[in-house]
Amino acid sequence: MVCMPHYLPQPPCRPARLLQHQRSYALLQRRRSCSYARRLFSNRPPRFFVEKRFYYSSCCLNNNLRKVTSKVFSACEAAAATKKSAAVVLPPDLDVGGHLRMGGTGELTVFDDESIKVLKQHARDQWKCRIIDAAEVPKAAERINRKHENMAPAGDIEQWLYRQMKLPAALSRAWEACYSAVSPPEIVLHARVEQDWYEHPCHSSKWTEGPSLFCHTPKFIARQISRYRNASVVLIHGDLATRYKEGSGESPREVWPQVNPGQKLHYKKWIPECSTELSKLKYNQAAFLDFWLALQAKVFVGNPTSSFSEGVYKARKLVGKEENYDYNCKDEGLRLQDGTFEETKLVDECRNGKGQV
Description:
It contains twelve helices and nine strands. The protein is an alpha/beta fold. It folds into three domains: 1-42, no CATH class; 45-164, no CATH class; 171-349, 3-Layer(aba) Sandwich (Rossmann fold). The strands form two sheets. The chain has a five-stranded parallel sheet, with helices on one face. Strand 6 (232-236), helix 9 and strand 7 (264-267) form a beta-alpha-beta unit. Helix 11 (283-296) packs across helix 12. It is elongated. The chain starts with 24 loop residues before the first helix and ends in a 31-residue tail after the last strand.
């Protein structure tokens, strides 16, 4: 265990891993138990916590958004532990000109000035945490940087996240071209059948027709919503895995009529005007269009192991939309002795129970 964060001067006690060969175990325990707040701030009272940029433009929409809450929450928590008047500097991606702030040149400007005011007020009311803009920090002031890339639980601040984000004006043309004809949608289905999914989570997991936690074929997913016989279904997904490309015989467009002939299937890239607009967008901009559509659906069906689906579940529950289902609810009781699976439950028996806010 490291007694002090790496971004501060060398602490009076060495990292615990260097004490492994000390004869006195009591000494090791005493050094491990020294107060974090006292060690961090003794003889050097903090002034401001400053978070570094976290936004990745080519990956993971909901992961990026959740890191907002993690950074704010962890910085406020550490500032409170000082028992001093420490302030938290707004993460640069949320500050004026940041990637997520309206009014600037960022690519996913989903939070406006009013949203930031709500965040500051929430932090002040809930945690007695003072959040300021970078411009408010005096030049001579001492700053303490915090590197925090994990998506730690952020409690009720996630309510702020999903309630306050808005569709950017820069995406209005793409929205009109891709989704105006199906908005509000009856069913939105997030099919996690993209190439990146099969290169990572499914790499060590056998893809299957049964209720595996991760990997499913488009045909299996189609069967899961077969009870909606004449429904209009909007698929949302990124670039399909190679095995499911059109022409393979296993793509959603090819298998859906076989499984659900009465359903009307919609996918944005099948519309030429939409494809043109999407070619102008970054990865997260296109993903946000899907996210925004999913919030409006009467029914949402997703994969609870996907951070994208998890974010949609949470955001929908905040506004009272309870028709949220998993197409891969796992039931260990269905596993047979030979390791295979019987037919899984249908989607109407798989109401999403994760992602509670």
